[in-house]
Design brief:
single chain, about 60 residues, mainly alpha, 2 helices, elongated
Amino acid sequence: MLTYIKESIEELRHNVTLPSRAESSNLMVIVAVFSILFALATWGVDTVFSKFIQLYFNTLIN
């Protein structure tokens, strides 16, 4: 287990490179935009299904 931890730290020090601040900012904006679009799409589908279910039960009761 100790060998695994030591090798992991070694790999992090020598093989992992972090993106620049500008690249990180660009990626953050892209993730935020797609998250908002996905949330809006989910909200839209939920609204449509809600209307269908409401219509179904209203016609079933009447």
